[in-house]
Amino acid sequence: MQFSEIIIPKMYEEMKLLVQKDLSSAETVALTTDGWSSRATESYMTITSVHNNVDWELVNYVLQTRALPESHTGEHVAEVLNEAVTEWNLQAIDGAPPLVTDNASNMLKAGKLFETKLHVTCFAHTLNLACQKFLKVKRVSHLLARIRQLVSYFHRSNMASAVLKTKTHLLSVPEHKLIIGVCTRWNSSYDMLQRFLEMQVAVFATIRSKELKVKDYKSFSDEDLTLAEEVTHLLKPLKDVTVGLCSEKIPTVSLTMPLKHQLMNRVLVLSDDDSPTIQEMKQSLIEDLKNRYLEQKPMLYICSALDPRFKMLPFLSEEIRFDVFNQVAAKAATIPTNSPAKKLKIKK
């Protein structure tokens, strides 16, 4: 009782003071928030802060995780955000702090009620929503369901897993475990497909082995395996983009528009070599992505222009590029010149 009621609260207050001191020295603090459910199906809302320290290193803090038994309406989410801003003294001069959320309708409404001048939706979550749609293409969803059912069989059966391990060794297949894809996360479907294809020889040898009696197994045709390979090939760059966007060490907002352009104009370009199913998947993703971030484009273009990797904005037309440069110059002109220079520590 003493540990939970005295020691832990004391540690919390001590750490809170340190975090508040660090946040108070930051020029700008942005917030991110997300709702989630525990295994006990209890609802929570977590709020994190992000800022650059004096050495321009990205610093993240989990400010709070609160139970949210009430309905997750935009009004309630905005209320919790405002309470956190007050508790942590994060009020900005020109309004609420910048906010990053997912694309859920309640979060979009919360952003408006929060009255922040800068509300950006997570590009990784945007990709997740778009990919969820094209994974519902009939042939693809049917194939994924069959592979998921087969993988589930290996996870349920100790004997099947043991035989599979033996077969992988005999056939010189990487001794990995099969992965079950989660329907709500497209990247787990990619992981499941990729691992299934990697181990398919051992999987099929196991299913046909005399040690197992699998009566309801339906074999995969060459067309099925070809489709699995095509889908994996299409999803790989999307998985790479998602992994890159989930970095906690560097800001990723400047990547949004260059990556969107790269996806729309290279990865998703329709080809005569694409099967009808792959063309349908690409078209579905194109339709979803093309109307994303229209309102935030000016701000996102400026972010890309300030990133040394994209400062020439090669993905934009000359007219738009010069307009962005003019906006950057105008904003730079408003920065007070009498501000003391900050010394940066250069790491070797």
From TrEMBL:
InterPro entries: RNaseH-like_sf, ZnF_BED_domain_contain. This is Uncharacterized protein. It comes from Patella caerulea.
